[in-house]
């Protein structure tokens, strides 16, 4: 059977359907669907995306039988409309539009009134009884076709039009007479001939094929190619071409054109929301030359407009349109974005598609549609974009505010914040005490900056990526953060930063948008988040549908409270080292590091014990009834040491040792590759007294609060390490009546490969530390990859930054190996993830597919993860069903 | 059936055999074997190692039926000897000795003459007709038993003995009379009673069980435990106890005792080599109080000794012993180390075991025994320790020279070297110009030090491990190197190093031994290596039996020539970056790095092209007919940049740029974890012109010399990287008539996991870069692991440093995954290894087991690898045979 290249639609029946978007493009598929639904769609046909693909595969030639199929399609349209393409007395006019699977900038948009020439224009005049309308249509056609298909510069036509208005002393296009317009047409044709070296095509067939060819060619414009690369759209998808009989909203006052949403796209409220213009063509609404009027009385009142609504002006057509609205929503079971035209009192539907909406509207529509029984809970959940929830959780820039953007970095932690620029953590803390909003601005941050980051409203760095220290900590704290803004040069000595010619000094006001990465001068107004009932409803459904639990990575009481407020079902990662940085404690930590004997080390640790114990007790109390996983000390010891001369002296004075000695120890602790150095459980092996102290603090706190802690050992590479350290912990627990379990991070490839042995050694749970597992599996430092990651994304080596979205092929393969080996030994092995990926929807879907028990992420991502977990569970279930059915 | 705890031997038949070493220990098994062979072994029995294990498993109690089995064993001995244990007139005396699988310091050695007491001593006097002998035996017994079993301090007995000699005015032990000795015995018993609070045991049964218990207890002495830990001997092995009828070499001038080797253990020459003493007990030979005499006339002449040989003194017994020698060699088919005693003209064999020998002797004996048809080539190859070949390839310290050892580091590159201490590479090169021997001494080395390392006779570092830069490069160059000598403090500014109180200044002479890690003051004489014909013979057999090829890691013409001289069958890794460090080139390299545009970078690269091309051409010429694998640029660019202020200024001046700009670029290129940073193929992705230049140089050189190069891309993590870079290389080859292949290092876990995809992308070979694969799989920086690796080895987490011997469980698992996936796609996928492990015998065995095509190692390890590869192939074949048989 020969391929079908052309699909007809209209007059109550169609070759295509809404679910044939891949073949027909979004527009074509929905036109076909509407026609089948019995809605008034002007007849037409779609040239499929496969023609586009074939065109480029065969050196820009069409399939042999395309011509015939188009002719056939056109004949059907002629029959439906009762007019003939190119006929001098009763001419059929058509529109030609592109239509890819997803709407795409850079593609050819629309040519209207195609089929007009010096002869058919007279037929149109006779048929419509309006010579001015006919010549205006012809004028518009030449202008559009000349611009879009023939690529004659747009201004050539505008110049002629303007000159005519001047010459004839008229002000509006509408005031030009038929005679004026005829002259303009002549001038248009002359300019085309001059520019092209040949006359404007009079043959309607030539016009049609010219327009079809222009659509296909526009698939390969640089702008379209760039857009596809950015949005991961494969070239093979191609575009379709829609050819459709013209209807006219500009044939008189019983004509109109409009666009509408079936519900309010910014709030989600269930009322008809839209605009129309009397006696106008579609592009007039978009162009904004005339002010569009509201569809409904309700809408007009809301806007306080004097202009009459369609409900008042064309009550019958409006009623028809309301029926269409209900029909479409019932059929598509989603809010629709529609375009329509009224010609001589008759309604025509030109487009429908799912309407874009704000996050708040998305939530409301989803919840409402479940109440209206249009969709089920699972479908409501699947409709929502988890990432978009971020909009609801953080302050956002007032969309109306003026923005003076001076730099762009990575959108490292969502939310917008204004404040004065401060360059050191201490100063930030100091200045923030009286409530001053501060933007802590640094080349990069380190654990020593935590207090300043906490005090700041936002954090700006000039180095580092999406998972740099600044980014990770800011997300954890819910602070806005723009990271790696490389065009900014910070001179913290001089307390100044430079962006090109802009010089920003300490104390100057700036605004950062952590959702876009933008850095702006001055204060830009922000809008505070408010969580609606719809949000609570959706989260409730999400938890009911999710199989995996969602925990939070949190260690401070504040973080834990935020996490619980966002519905975290436990703590998946409490990083004990964050508790070491408090000014009163860091001295003891440093003394511990400087201890030359086990006794001296134990003495320093004994001073830390009460603080650790009370930290844990508070955390257990906040998370009462929920699991809490505590990771023992992880970072290399040098992270705790003073770095500046001043700090070194201060520490030496307090500890009563020589500052030279401090420097020497700093030298000894220096590492070439600290990520692969003396850290994690390696500290526990060489300094068992550190882990013993931490275990003791955990057990004491658990006894005090009745908690059943999960103790997690980091950076395990071998089962022997695990055995030695589990023994140490078990030893510490002896005599204490406490229930606990001991597990490990799986964050090194070797641990994943040896998961069976580690399970045999008594690990009760595995938590995938995918940050480090990504670093080691890919041999890629997350702190340093910023240098070449953009090249890697651009060249398609990684689809996305593997530190943001899990590399399922590589890292995921190791996770699967570990999960299978672990559960082969211990059926009830609890599996979780606590890397940054635990808050990324795509990564969460992978976690669901491999059967993890929970994901853990920063507190502010908990709602996103809950929704993503629910979606993953629903999709996984339906995939399983499909498999079973097959 | 009840367990057999006791195995009898002697009188021509035995319960045990030589291959029952695990059960009977080495000594017991060989005594049994000798008895079965019909050799004159005094009757006795062995208490098995299983008793030792049972003893410790059951809270230091013996198996219930042990007593009876020992009694039975003893009865057999009584019967064979015709004497009775504890009998007053005809007493049986026995020796009790420990006997583990391998001889082990810290274990109880020997108690002789057990069974003597105040009564049996008289029987012995009567039986031997020599009262003095009887009392001397009794005196020796109390002393040995008191020392070893009762733990009475040794000096208590010595004091009594000395006092008696003084009191009685005699000088030698032998001059003490029976009466003197009787008094000494009384004094010995008194001191035992005083120290123990109870009398010396008179009951022979109590004596026997005391001695057996002492052997088992000695299994758990701290010294024994330490030794086992160091030598990987499991505690469960346990020790056996040998109880054997006494024979006496000290009953008169027709008695003697001796030790011998069946061939010369230091040269391997095939003559009888040994010493004996007339009228002496075994320990007299060892103690060195009397000068032992040569066994043979030949030996006596060689040593220029006046003392008569056994051949002359006891020709009949000597002839018997010669027969024993031949019988043992024929039976064991190896050179034996034997102990014997002659009692009243009758020969008794007390021990045989494989004799320790020098590397040279080992080679000669192996080659000779093949010629003598005692063993086959495969057995000859298996006998040799590949590591020991190192002795033959490098200068070694004169064994007779005095050594003043002041520090110990890691034995990082074998060989010994003396020279003056120099602290910088430039200075080392300068001073070495006139032939001065230099020891380059640094905290650690970097690629910038290469010229100084090359000029030096030896390299000493105070930081870094077995695979630090210094160690790897030194092994590659065949320079002696002691690395990570942490007790040495180098102050290179002051040009001085301190070791405790020793101050060593620039220009002072020191000696290092890279085979032991020792650092010595002054010059210690060394012995030059000479490769014998036996060496060539063995290497020939090795190549004939090996399945894998052995290639070398080499880039300089010198290295390549050395490698070829040592029989390398190609180059497995040519590190092109080493070619960049020559003073004339480094400036261009740095200009290339500083280039801000592709054009400027290409310009700098064009200057490097001719040098690269001629390097490759020279290498191809040296390796004519053999495969050469060239790795494209691998290290991060900052390794090439100047670091000191002086160097920065010098470079800036030459390149005519501002030194501030240089510093800024240095800052930009700084990385937190350079091992995981912008290096390897990531450079090729971001700066394709670098790889294009290198590929061009390779192809031009190949055309010039007719070589068929293998081009290797480093640090591949994804198939897309490989595809992009292979395309680049193929593009560069276009129009050039050259045969080549493109492959990749497998040095990241992700590459191993995705090996199928990489194979599908056209990789012709995989070379396992196990240095980096170990670093990433274990998350372990080889530069930093020195800090805790000793703890890790001590606690049994790693049996050996995973950078020296492949972690087969973890890293090996990934290699297997990669090998299988790669060959599933491409059956003829060539697999090799080019990490440091390629020269380690244990790792080579693993490579054989997984079917690699070749191993590649530093030139000086090539012979070791050839032998190890042959052994691995032979063992693998026999393992397969066994499997098939089973």
Give the helices and strands, then pairings.
The structure is a homodimer.
Chain A: E1 6-9, H1 21-36, E2 44-47, H2 49-57, H3 66-81, E3 84-85, E4 91-92, E5 94-100, E6 110-114, H4 120-128, H5 131-148, H6 154-168, H7 178-196, H8 204-218, H9 222-230, E7 239-245, E8 256-261, E9 273-278, H10 282-287, E10 293-294, H11 297-303, H12 310-313, H13 315-332, E11 336-343, E12 346-354, H14 359-371, H15 377-383, H16 390-393, E13 396-397, E14 405-408, E15 410-413, E16 416-422, H17 425-432, E17 438-442, H18 450-455, E18 458-461, H19 469-477, E19 480-483, E20 488-491, E21 496-499, E22 502-505, E23 509-513, E24 518-521, E25 526-527, H20 533-545, E26 549-553, H21 557-565, E27 571-575, H22 583-594, H23 598-622, E28 628-631, H24 645-655, H25 659-669, H26 681-686, H27 688-705, E29 710-713, H28 719-733, E30 741-746, H29 749-753, H30 755-760, E31 765-768, H31 770-778, H32 789-794, H33 811-825, E32 830-833, H34 841-849, E33 854-857, H35 862-885
Parallel strand pairs in A: 3-4, 16-17, 17-18, 18-19, 26-27, 26-33, 27-28, 28-29, 29-30, 30-31, 31-32, 32-33
Antiparallel strand pairs in A: 1-2, 2-7, 5-6, 5-7, 8-9, 8-11, 9-10, 11-12, 13-25, 14-24, 15-19, 16-23, 20-21, 21-22, 23-24
